[in-house]
Specification:
14 helices, single chain, 6-stranded parallel sheet, Rossmann fold, 2 domains, alpha/beta, 7-stranded parallel sheet, 13 strands
Length: about 425
């Protein structure tokens, strides 16, 4: 089975959970002997220290990286189309080129920046369409059985690939515009998502929560939607998980994620202020970046909790591992969370978790405490209960780690493989 996959993140290009999901998914699918051509954007030259092979994308200049040794993911080939797009981009950040260094960017004309720069579309949606046009020669030149794309920015590219190849298309929904923006949802993105829901041959949703929202908001038939929960790599065993110490002062409570409306950082800060009235030695850590960060810094100052509150900025790789090891409790107070991989990662480290009821991960992680994101008092009470009760904390640690036995990427890959088979060979 060969798959043409369109995505927006893959290490080293990572800005959120989608990159983690795409890496875990493709690695596990490769173990199932599924051959994948992964097409992604990138605003920098591919890093030569990665074990990836990048092949030519026709007239859109890319560079080939030769690995020094064989990679276990040899069935996954990557094509990088040079573009500034990434999953959580909006019209404002695109217009201001926020977060893009411009180093090593190649133009369509094949020259370096400043030579014949025709790289960017006039706006975010023009760039999405330009990416779709870049995908066309790949679809013409490569043989594959199924098209698999991730979230709204890939919809035009997937439609173009299906038009050219006649192969079936699976849309994988990790997040909806209504999740990211709530009542401020961009109608153009909503319309593009709706087109994808209506035209895709099949849809994969990361949770039952997301499936219900797709049916409710877009009117898609539930028979066309398969739920495949995200996972973690259980074989990446954490040999020294966090051990709760009831008598130790200075416990750490972690928020790790984008500092945006969707993730509920303001509710976390308000709850932190309540906890500190009872336990002044607790340290609260907000790891991540996003458009709400300046406002959250101001909020912490207004509440007078700056001495017990730290902002780390964006973290990845070993820094994320280190942060979990430092933490006694993880809180995910999301307003709307289609899945949420971080609570599973926290559980691997033996860190008890509190998660929003409006989340997909609550469907697979049962040994955790649930909160309504808006109920700051209840969130604070549950933090206090865990931080002050050693038996409750240690029981949650043990049960949550046991629970991970059914939430691996191997299980997710098996379900995705079954979807491929049904769509490619049975037309359902």
């Amino acid at each position: 089975m060969k798959v043409l996959m369109f995505g927006w993140e893959f290490p080293p290009y990572v800005s959120g959970g989608l990159g983690t999901a795409c890496f875990g998914m493709t690695r596990a699918l490769a173990d199932e002997r599924i051959e994948i051509l992964f097409v992604m954007p990138g605003s920098e030259e591919p890093r030569s220290d990665r074990l990836l092979r990048v092949v030519s994308a026709g007239s859109f200049a890319v560079e080939e990286v030769s690995p020094d040794r064989k990679t276990p993911d040899a069935e996954v080939t990557h094509v990088v189309v040079h573009s500034p797009l990434h999953p959580y981009l909006n019209e404002w950040t695109y217009g201001n080129r926020s977060g893009f260094s411009g180093r090593g960017i190649l133009s369509q004309g094949g020259g370096r920046e400043g030579a014949s720069l025709v790289l960017y579309g006039a706006d975010l949606f023009s760039e999405v369409e330009r990416y779709a046009q870049a995908a066309a020669p790949i679809a013409r030149s490569e043989g594959f059985d199924v098209i698999h794309s991730h979230d709204w920015m890939t919809i035009p590219a997937a439609l173009k690939a299906r038009e050219i190849s006649g192969k079936p298309w699976i849309l994988h929904v990790h997040s909806l515009e209504y999740d990211r923006s709530g009542d401020a949802a961009d109608r153009r993105i909503v319309e593009m998502e709706k087109r994808g829901m209506m035209e895709a041959d099949h849809i994969i949703a990361v949770s039952g929560y997301t499936k219900r929202r797709i049916v409710s908001y877009y009117g898609a038939s539930p028979d066309r939607i398969s739920v495949v929960h995200n996972g973690v790599f259980r074989n990446d065993a954490v040999e020294d998980p966090v051990t709760f110490q009831a008598g130790r002062k200075g416990k750490n409570v972690l928020f790790l994620g984008r500092i945006t409306f969707q993730k509920g950082p303001d509710y976390f800060i308000e709850a932190a202020a309540e906890v500190l009235k009872r336990f002044p030695d607790v340290t609260f850590i907000m790891a991540g970046s996003g458009d709400m960060m300046p406002g959250m810094i101001e909020k912490v100052a207004e509440l007078g909790i700056g001495k017990q509150f730290h902002f780390t900025g964006f973290l990845q790789g070993e820094d994320v591992d280190r942060m979990f090891r430092m933490s006694d409790l993880y809180v995910m107070p999301s307003v709307s969370e289609p899945f949420g991989i971080s609570p599973l990662e926290a559980s691997r480290y033996g860190v008890p978790v509190i998660v929003s009821r409006n989340s997909g991960v609550a469907e697979v992680l049962h040994h955790c405490l649930l909160v309504d994101f808006w109920d700051v008092r209840d969130m604070a009470d549950k933090m206090i209960a865990l931080l002050s009760r050693e038996p409750l904390m240690t029981e949650m640690q043990a049960r949550a780690r046991e629970e991970l036995s059914g939430t691996g990427w191997k299980e997710a890959a098996g379900k995705i493989r079954d979807v491929y088979t049904r769509v490619a060979y049975q037309g359902v």
